Amino acid sequence: MLRACTIDFGKGWVNHFPLVEFSYNNSYHASIKATPFKALYDRKCHSPICWTEVGEAQILGPELIQETTEKIVQIKQRMQTAHDRQKSYADLKRVIGKVAYKLDLPGDLSKVHITFHVSNLKKNHADEPLAVSLDGLHFDDKLHFVEEPV
């Protein structure tokens, strides 16, 4: 994200760093299902009004608000572009292949790996779903099925 901003803003990227930080902290992150600011403080962040240091010339009024809003929108777009590009690379690494499948398993089987080779799977031809109750099944530490005599 920072690389995209340095390319876009050129040598003046340092002046826009607070806006980059603001945009990052107020952008939704799927990993935490919230913005970092909301996750930390449990409230939404208010928009910045002035980023200048003491003694610097300041733009006041609607021009400042307009410029800040435009920069925030631009930075968020750059972040989304970078996220999409990085996601495409990550998705390529998630490809299973022609001989493996990922299965949606119930929560009771959370310790079982969800990727299976096709030789371990059998096609289901039944009209109704064949759900087996997991209450009577027992697994050891290595997740092997433990048979009990009846």
Automatic annotation (TrEMBL):
Q: Which Pfam families match?
A: SH3_Tf2-1
Which InterPro entries does the UniProt record give?
RNaseH_sf, SH3_Tf2-1
One GO MF term on file is: nucleic acid binding
For the Tf2-1-like SH3-like domain, which residue ranges apply?
Answer: 94-124
What superkingdom does the record give? Eukaryota
UniProt name for this protein: Tf2-1-like SH3-like domain-containing protein
Q: Which organism is it from?
A: Tanacetum cinerariifolium
Its taxonomic placement starts with: Eukaryota, Viridiplantae, Streptophyta, Embryophyta, Tracheophyta
